[in-house]
Amino acid sequence: MSTNNIVILGAGVSGLTTAYLLSKDASNSITVLAKHMPGDYDIEYASPWAGANYLPVGKASSSHGKWERNTWPALKEITEKYPDAGIHFQDAVVYNRTKDQGSATGDWFSELVQKEPWYKDVVPDFRNFPDHELAPGIDNASVFTSVCINTAIYLPWLIGQCRKTGVVFKRAVIKHVADAASLHHSGKKADVVVNCTGLSSRKLGGVNDDKLHPIRGQVVVVRNDPGAMFSISGTDDADDEITYMMTRAAGGGTVIGGSYQKDQWDPLPDPNLAVRIMKRAVALVPQLVGKGQGIEGLDVIRHGVGLRPFREGGPRIEADKVNGVSVVHNYGHGGFGYQASFGCAAEAVELVNGVLRQKGRAKL
């Protein structure tokens, strides 16, 4: 059996999920190269900062919707079979205010907050709240079973699964995507390079994708447990601010957000925004704190900022040739990297296999 030498650039959720799926084929010899690895907390490494959960936001007829649809079964299976992966089921409550449509966050959540969304046939236990249960200002609301991922456990779990099958992980800073082909751990040139560098693809030589933009997300992580996930379509504070909260599995704390600030690179938490985030969370879900308490009832673990790798026109998942090197791209997932991770990675794997088949025919 011939060996396929593959180099994957990036160790965020997209890179690790792609490596995980490719590692299931024993003929693949995989090296993952990354500047940042799980355990790092850096502004340009988005995956550790994510909530992360399953709240579909793609249109049903789009590739985005298909990727999210195809990811749910994998997340469900991991949650059920692998408690060590750091994922648990959790009710998700979604509130909609029609007046938020047209804002940055309202547009982002427009599919999520539909009264009859396409994903109601994908997730378990979907139901709409009856009108008499809706608070003033809420036009519709729903609840369904979702998952919440403790990224500090899940990303290392993916690495562990890959290492069982011989995947090699190495720190590296790559200036040009074609250079990665010469860095396979075997010493041989890679047959294909998979580019999962997220926002770094803006400046990565041979890619230089100017369609990529940062969308700054600020969060507060607290020890308080609201008992479920909650989100709402917008806020009265700013068009690019939002309210959501989710409790990560296995003691990961509750992530409260947030913001959706396009082309904003500031790595430092804004203390005024942090106060607004906390006030909105307590107003939306009073049980987050003790009765009669305000934000002083929140037990803060840390404040954080991450940059979502948003790409105009959607993620880039396609085969490419750069300086004679076969490259498959899988980057630009904005704020839905986890909930589309398996759908996107499976598509990237198909493209990798297509490249390898062509190379096999060329060798014959």
UniProtKB/TrEMBL annotation:
Sample GO molecular function, one term: D-amino-acid oxidase activity
Enzyme class, UniProt record, top EC level: oxidoreductase
Residues annotated for D-dopa binding in this entry: 335
Name this polypeptide is given: D-amino-acid oxidase
Cofactor(s) for this UniProt protein: FAD
Pfam family name, one: DAO
Compartments where found: Peroxisome matrix
Origin organism lineage: Eukaryota, Fungi, Dikarya, Ascomycota, Pezizomycotina
InterPro entries according to UniProt: D-amino_acid_oxidase_CS (IPR006181), DAO (IPR023209), FAD-dep_OxRdtase (IPR006076)
Reactions catalysed, as given in the entry: a D-alpha-amino acid + O2 + H2O = a 2-oxocarboxylate + H2O2 + NH4(+)
FAD dependent oxidoreductase domain: residues covered: 6-351
Similarity comment: family membership: Belongs to the DAMOX/DASOX family.
UniProtKB keywords: FAD, Flavoprotein, Oxidoreductase, Peroxisome
EC number: 1.4.3.3
